[in-house]
Amino acid sequence: MIRADIGLLTETPGLYPRLNAEQNLGFYARLHGVENIARQVRTYLTLLGLWERRHEPVGGFSKGMQQKLAIARALLHEPPVLFLDEPTSALDPEAARVVRDFIETLRGEGRTIFICTHNLDEADRLCDRVAVIRQRLIRVDTPEALRRGLYGQSVMIHFREVFAPVRALIEDLPFVRGVSETDEGLRVAIDDPETNNPALIRVLVGAGADIRFVERESHSLELLVGKVTAAVVPAVILAWLSFLVTAAGMYVLASPVVFAYLVRPVWTLSMAVHAPLFALLSTSSGVIASSRMNDPRAAQQISALFIVPVVAASMAVIMGRLYLSLDIMLWATAVMVLINVGVLWLAVRLFQREMILTRWK
Question: Could you list the residue range(s) of the whole structural domain that residue 161 is in?
């Protein structure tokens, strides 16, 4: 039967809240025709750290614990094919590491595992092949091939001191595709670093270069900046377009007095400057929230709360309950710039920290 060959983890756990963990797994084990139910239940509850909580009703479990129990349910009958939808959703970093280690073990047993995830680091480390889907299949390849196609491959060479002949020597090598100088050294775009790095280093040492160390360049921050830009730019464009359409409508339909009152320099400044600042603040706060939780949708909802005071202030001004002079708006702009700098700095630091916390190899 197909059911016997497939294990399925859905987005929602789908467990019985009044039954305890052991009873839930026992019930599903009987549905799948598992022979030694007690042994299988104990095995997977122990592997996922739930054995000591086996007699507690599942309704009192945290979302992360319910997620782990749902994973155990999907594996009870030892299926050769697994479909896992966001397997580490709502798990803390340590629990997520346990689940990833477990998936890695299952993959080593020769099972076929399909993982649906928004966690790119998770897909990179667990999957042999990655498919990018946006309403349709865009591309499927190995993680390394996808990275190479998006960024290319490059290494950072850190010198005690960079001198001009070194860069010329590197650029003449047949496997080097480009060289750029940074504050830290030279960034070298190179074909197949694992194969060509030794030859590159031999040439540099032979030329008398003092190499401090060589590292493969990471693109995690480029990914962060790309996500922030992709979220901020459309929001800003939509805000500006909405303001222009509203102003045009008022010019055509409203009286000159109403138009002059509403479309003032203070509001033009607000839309031109504050819209990008609030969009950036909302996006940065989403990055910070996502570093503390594995559910990206919850992080998006938290970041969206920043629009509430903006809408409230706008309504208060329109209704005559609040007056904002140009001087106040200028001071607010300066404060918003400082807040954005601080929040963006924190977002970058937490993003880097999360990359470290979620490593398990």
Answer: 152-217
